[in-house]
Amino acid sequence: MVKVLLVLMAYLSFLVVSGYAIDSPQYTLVYSQSDFQIRLYRQSSWMSATVHGTSFNSSTKDAFHRCVIVTVTVWHNMCPAAHWVVVLNSIRFQHLYLKIPLMTPWVYKYIHGANRNASHLVMTAPVLTSVTPSAHGSEYTARFFLSPKYEESPPQPYPELNLQFDKWRSHCVAVRVFSGFAVDDAITKEIKALQTSLDGYLYGNPAVVEEKNSYTIAQYNASYHLTGRVNEVWMNISGLTAEGCPSYGGKY
């Protein structure tokens, strides 16, 4: 189990650090300021899994307490968690927590062959987590970007994985880039900063933020990268007709 996770993280690290071409959703930059951008993303396809929680941090803790023992002893059991946390208990790595953020066991298994074709999918970036408030905490939907060759007919996941194939139409996204780890305090701060920037930009502008209480966190780095990390806050935006931003009423 530990070896599998280390291989995944090392592989993703190699792709990012070496500059190897990782497939990512394509977009056109339609507006840019020093503190945020507006991007027009093309149609894209994602494989997703949804869990419920109260925060990024608590979901991580939940993943540790509810997943590690199960996945080590009974690998094929499904564990409802938004993150995996592995503790390497050795002299060299004692007390070192290696987190694979936002990659649920379901999605991990899917890209490593738990699909009808037994296909092993190449890692893509970013990994998204869309957060939608609900009456009982929030819904966290982890999304894995599917390479263009799978856009029309992706490998079908095994039913027990409870994965959802999402095909997003072209739409505009307001984006704020931030560094460090995507943890609760940092996310709250960056969301407020993006909202403040948008308030100024949208004043007197027909554009609107779709689903104001919802947002998406995009992460581009393997979790053991302690420096040079790149994360983004995304909020869907519509009404910029001159820039080609369509409006779907939040239904992308």
Give a short overview.
The protein is α+β, with helices and mostly antiparallel strands and 252 residues long. It contains four helices and twelve strands, in the order αβββαββαββββαβββ.
Walk me through the structure:
By secondary structure, the protein is α+β, with helices and mostly antiparallel strands. It is 24% helix and 30% strand. The strands form two sheets. Strands 1, 2, 3, 6, 7, 8, 9, 10, 11 and 12 form a ten-stranded antiparallel sheet that branches. A two-stranded antiparallel sheet has the order 4-5. It starts with a helix and ends in a 14-residue tail after the last strand. Residues 1-20 and 60-102 have low confidence and may be disordered.
Instruction: Tell me roughly what share of residues is in helical segments.
Output: 10-25%
Low-pLDDT residue intervals, each spanning 5 or more residues:
1-20, 60-102
Could you state the oligomeric state of the chains shown?
single chain
Spatial extent as radius of gyration: 18 Å
Order of helices and strands: HEEEHEEHEEEEHEEE
Mean pLDDT: 74
In this structure, how is the largest beta sheet organized?
A: 10 strands, antiparallel
Number of strand segments = 12
Structural class of the secondary structure composition? alpha+beta
> In one word, what is the shape?
globular
- Contiguous helical run count: 4
Share of β-strand residues = 25-35%
Q: Give the termini distance in whole angstroms.
A: 36 Å
